[in-house]
Amino acid sequence: MKFSMGTLELEVHFIDRHFAALINRLAKVPSPELELAAKLVSNFRERGDVCVALRAITASDASKIGGPDIPPLKSWVRKLRASGVVGKPGEFAPLILDENERLYLQRYWKYEDELARNLQARLRDSPIRDFNQTELAEQSGKTLSRSVRFAKSGGFRRGNVATSASFRARPEREKRAPLF
């Protein structure tokens, strides 16, 4: 079964349907809306997305994959949270629903959270330094003018580059062990 989300053509696979059925069986409060959300998050993960933005799902999309009519977003979020298998960020649950109504498989939410924390730590430890735009423009201009002059004077000739490369490579070759 195929449906289109944006410009991509998606296909709901056997694994998506079975994952959704499993999540619905594990839920304290199963519902067709939970099954639809689980089917979508599984399918999106397969196509390379880490989450499903629930607010982007339309009734047309749901009907194309055989899902129920999508309730209003607030109602859908309430049903997912009441299911017992959908947690908030930082909780341990099979599915994670963040404050922006993005639904994740727990593992992928954790990966994204760890990546964000690592990037924040790197920026904190080594902040991006300010640069002088005037100095940058001057240096870029000097480099460009040297390159233009060099190109006009004949620049690199293939033979010269090849010869130079072979001389530079010889000492390295001598250090290597024989192939035979």
Task: Describe the secondary-structure layout.
Blueprint: E1 2-5, E2 8-11, H1 14-26, H2 32-46, E3 51-53, H3 59-64, H4 73-82, E4 86-87, E5 95-97, E6 102-105, H5 106-125, H6 133-152, H7 158-175
Parallel strand pairs: 4-5
Antiparallel strand pairs: 1-2, 3-6, 5-6
Helix pairs in contact: 1-2
Write structural notes for this entry.
It is a single chain. It is built from 7 helices and 6 strands, in the order E-E-H-H-E-H-H-E-E-E-H-H-H. It has 180 residues and is an alpha+beta fold. Helix 1 (14-26) packs across helix 2. The chain is elongated and about 75 Å long. Mean pLDDT is 78; it is low at 1-8 and 158-180.
Could you name the key traits of this structure?
Arc Repressor Mutant, subunit A; 180 residues; disordered C terminus; 2 domains; alpha+beta; disordered N terminus; 57% helix; 11% strand; two-stranded antiparallel sheet; 7 helices; four-stranded mixed sheet; single chain
